[in-house]
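Figure caption, in words: inputs first, then the predicted bound structure.
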Amino acid sequence: MTARILDGNALSAQVRGELAEQAAALTQRGVQPCLAVILVGDNPASAVYVRNKVAACEKAGIRSLKFDYPQDAEPAEVLAKIAELNADAGVHGILVQLPLPPRFDEKAVLEAIAVGKDVDGFHAENVGRLSQGQPAFFPCTPHGVMKILEYGDIPVTGADAVVIGRSNIVGKPMAMLLTQAGATVTVCHSRTRDLASHTRRADILVVAIGRALEVTADMIKPGATVIDVGMNRFPAGHPKEGKLCGDVEFEGASQVAGAITPVPGGVGPMTITMLLANTVESARRAADAGGR
Ligand code: NAP
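Bound structure (NAP present):
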């Protein structure tokens, strides 16, 4: 079998086009969606992520504000900026790029963001709302995965879903979203015994480990949908050494799976798209409430 490719770039282009139209309509109403991004320190990968987010905003007609702080910035200074942005009615989303330098209390910084502007969906109140099935800003990566499943017409209700990874930003919210959509969900992690015995039962397998080529064809049920969240580089000695790859060994897996996301071009583009979606949604709420 050769798996159907779930093309995150194509879906992303479609959704971003719709979001650009919504942003233009809101701007006409006097509320241009605006995302504020805070970057602390000199992590090169973070700088690239922030650049991509800002560029995606501009392309969709979303205003972006960027605040850079040096590696040795005082946490109080960053918290003061968050308070200022919380109070600014013209700002609809606030994102603090993670990871923060070690002297920062990451949790305290995330909790300082107003719940209604927490477009990354990492605030404890948004996480709690998600777990209770209440409307909330959902974390962008798992939310993007749900959109990919919807776009690919993958039945979720009643499906056996296995999520590998239990991080707060991917694995846990992914499991909650799948549960709410009616899947029967198993969460695996580094302490799971006999990982393959779980993955081989999965109709939907979401892999968020962070280790190159960890999931191989023999771990996949024939016809399953495989969603590869991982972003890694092919290891030394591999013919594609240094190039981007996922957590799934794509060549083999795509011979067994029924549908699969590639890396790059799968989950990655949808993560930024859902950030834009949350920002537009926040601006819509402001406009409906008569704000700006
Ligand atoms: P993380 O916080 O490091 O979590 C990794 C998870 O994988 C942990 O729960 C860990 O278990 C589990 N794990 C590690 N080794 C394992 C093994 N051998 N077998 C089974 N489980 C294992 O990573 P993350 O932030 O969730 O990110 C995961 C991957 O997704 C990374 O490659 C990251 O770059 C990528 N990512 C991509 C996007 C995107 O937009 N495409 C967004 C976010 C993240 P324990 O909890 O027991 O340690």
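The radius of gyration is 19 Å.
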